[in-house]
């Protein structure tokens, strides 16, 4: 399938200053920006920037950023699921994973994550995709936020719902390994029934749970 990408941007006034939320950003433009040192949840900031530039240049890859001037202070990524995960097993061209969302501590509590997701979904092309995100409690910054596991889960669900993602059941062993883990999904308006059924077969491998 052809992966169309239409750029959108919006301004967000926060207690810590004005941010621009924009994307999808091409890798070449992203590489020229400053990348805040506190964006280190997944790997050191310079390495994370390298990874984002690579994702931005993938045909299906999408990076939406929040920036303060020329400094990236938050981002969300969309790309095909990791080949080692069950979600890639169907080789579905219209299934994208929201792989990472991160905002520096200075801007947390300003709904930056919600606005990153809202701008992501402004592009009409997103109606052609099933978007998934897998939430695992061991990835959550409970120490930095002071939230317990259930408070953090509630916050994640609220944020993801801003992008139209809803809780979906699955028998995936990693997700089932802790009750706070969850699969959240957004099915675009133009996704066909055949794709939905194929996705359901990936969600549930033990047919008795179907």
TrEMBL record:
One of its GO terms (molecular function) is acetoin dehydrogenase (NAD+) activity. SUPFAM superfamilies: Acyl-CoA N-acyltransferases (Nat). Pfam families: Acetyltransf_1. GO terms for biological process: acetoin catabolic process. It comes from the Bacteria. Residues 19-192 form the N-acetyltransferase domain. Transmembrane segments: none annotated. CDD domains: NAT_SF. InterPro entries: AcuA, Acyl_CoA_acyltransferase, GNAT_dom. Gene3D superfamilies: 3.40.630.30. This is Acetoin utilization protein AcuA. It comes from Weizmannia acidilactici. The gene is acuA.
